[in-house]
Design brief:
about 80% helix; MATE_fam; antiporter activity; 2 helices; xenobiotic transmembrane transporter activity
Length: about 80
């Protein structure tokens, strides 16, 4: 007979739900960041190919604004 406290058998359900929620939020965070980077890369490449340096500058500023905004929203406690 073991001595000590044994947790109820249903406690693993709460732990699994919490882990799943953390994994989902983490995946969402990286997916949004990846999408912003891919879209910015495509837009900058297209504008460079078209010879529009001002549009490249706007694209870079817009992508940086989106990345900083997403980061500040996702890191709030």
């Amino acid at each position: 007979m073991s001595v000590g406290r044994v947790s109820p058998p249903y406690m693993w359900i709460f732990s699994a739900r919490t882990d799943y929620l953390r994994l989902t939020i983490s995946t969402l965070h990286f997916t949004i960041s990846y999408a912003i980077g891919a879209a910015a890369s495509t837009r900058v490449s297209n504008e460079l190919g078209a010879g529009n340096p001002e549009a490249v500058r706007v694209a870079i500023y817009a992508s940086m604004f989106l990345a900083i905004t997403e980061e500040s929203i996702m890191t709030q406690n």
